[in-house]
Amino acid sequence: MKKSRSAGASSPVNGKEDWDTRRKRKTADIAQALSATPVDVAALRRMAISEGGLLTDEIRCQVWPRLLNVPLSVLDQEPETVERENNKDYNQVLLDVQRSLRRFPPGMPDEQREGLQEELIDIILRVLKRNPQLHYYQGYHDIVVTFLLVLEERLATALVEKLSTHHLRDFMDPTMDNTKHILNYLMPIIDRVNPEVHDFMQQAEVGTVFALSWLITWFGHVLSDFRHVVRLYDFFLACHPLMPIYFAAVIVLYREEEVLECECDMAMVHHLLSQIPQDLPYETLISRAGDLFVQFPPSELAREAASHESMASSTFKDFDLASTQQRPDSVLRRRRRQKQAALESSAASSVVAQPSAARRFVRLAVMGLTVALGAAALAVVNTALEWAPKLDLFP
Amino acid sequence: MQNNHQKEHLYKILVIGDLGVGKTSIIKRYVHHNFSPNYRATIGVDFALKVLNWDQETVRLQLWDIAGQERFGNMTRVYYREAMGAFIVFDVTRPASFEAVTKWKEDLDSKLTLANGKHVATVLLANKCDQGRDVLTNNGIKMEQFCQENGFVGWYETSAKENINIDEAANCLVKHIIASENDMLQSEVPDTITPQLEKDKGGTCSSCFRSQ
């Protein structure tokens, strides 16, 4: 890992060959982390975040369950059958699944796709039945189909269930109030980085509903290339549950010129922003989202966002606790890594610690680092992730 | 709505109704002249713009495609603001989606009132009429009665897939929007007799009702 960082830092302009080398090394690093006893989940998290994410669906099959602390023993259990008759959610789920054709690979034979759509319905109904506190929302099927296309049915069910009771929990309340609350984080983040864009959007009264489908489907609903979707899932599975809203902010900020040139009108700005460009530089944006998370952690934005506590964040703390308990030595390892990371990214972390008055300038400094010293900026992200769950999120 | 050499109108229109009835398909057909069986569920709100020439004037229609799932209702409320008209859509092959029509209409009326205190012009669309007809739509007289009782200015059997009656329905709605706009302009002057477009005169726009 250390080697790959210094390699990345010493040659900011990386050719294809160079990426191939790094890719091979990363594959080996992931294999090593998986074969360690106990499995080095923290390393896997870093791999999921860093350049290229988890690389292949084959690797994802092995790593995603680890990131969510789902035991592979679920593979031994027969999936329970779910009654479709008299199921309150069936009609709606069916309608949404029928309309999910575009989420399947274009070349897939109809028969295979139809089989997967049946499994998709089963998984959704199974999770909802086992967790009566959860409520289906349109877009949930976009999350589930992503898992089903990577994993087989039993693992997909287990992962989706874990995710539904943690990262997605807020979206599955009886009402969307908590989802609205999470969307309220968007404008404060934009304001910290580019007040001009923030003010423009406020003036247009565009609101945040343009980002709703991004948030509740982890962008699965709006991105047409499946590789981009799973790359983002790698990132989000390894991160704090509020990371998708930071990524949403990063997309808006990336399009700042377009936004400011747009007619300052709710309809026009909503239209512009809800049409997500398909050629986004995902790796750069992921890195930026991480930077923003470090600089403006949720705790700092919470007061602005609203007064309600976010369920996802609070449940995430329990979740993290559960996944660290399986590795009693994790604290020691974390400390060791933090020291290492601090050395490697001393420049970046020292600017991050500046008082808020200097924030806008700091952003540029860190952004600059992101481009020039990808590895150092990545260390910042990693450091943040190490302590993110420890944050007092809502003081 | 700038007054250049040519007069321009901008009208905001809501498209609402249960999920999967074809709201997105109707808008795509009307604005982009095409149809796909593979539209995804609308999450939140979508938006499309249609420009019409109307009596030598330009009419811009902002069509707001509102997600059908009830739980989004609280979030999409803000998009109802300043709407001048609405389509409420149901699926002729799914009776439940028709039963929800009155609920959507009541919800619309509770969220939106014109400056003159009246409800916005609303046209009812019985969509997917190419896929066989439910008993509900086979009786035109009953549908007209339903429209009058529930405050719809007209209704159409539509098919986004086969491009049936989409333009006609939109023209009917625009006509009523313009009429209610004129009505409001006049009602701003006190002691003026205003033309009535009330439901007790449901036949005012007979062209809006398809003869069965």
UniProtKB/TrEMBL annotation, chain A:
One of its GO terms (biological process) is Golgi organization. Residues 54-240 form the Rab-GAP TBC domain. It is a multi-pass membrane protein. Residues 1-25 are annotated as: Disordered. Keywords: GTPase activation, Membrane, Transmembrane, Transmembrane helix. InterPro entries: Rab-GAP-TBC_dom, Rab-GAP_TBC_sf, TBC20/Gyp8-like. Pfam families: RabGAP-TBC (PF00566). GO terms for cellular component: endoplasmic reticulum membrane. One of its GO terms (molecular function) is GTPase activator activity. The chain crosses the membrane at residues 235-254, 364-385. It is found in: Membrane. This is TBC1 domain family member 20. It comes from Collichthys lucidus.
TrEMBL record, chain B:
This is Ras-related protein Rab. The small GTPases Rab are key regulators in vesicle trafficking. GO terms for cellular component: late endosome; lysosome; membrane; phagocytic vesicle; trans-Golgi network. Belongs to the small GTPase superfamily. Rab family. Pfam families: Ras. It comes from Larimichthys crocea. CDD domains: Rab32_Rab38. It is a lipid-anchor. GO terms for molecular function: GTP binding; GTPase activity.
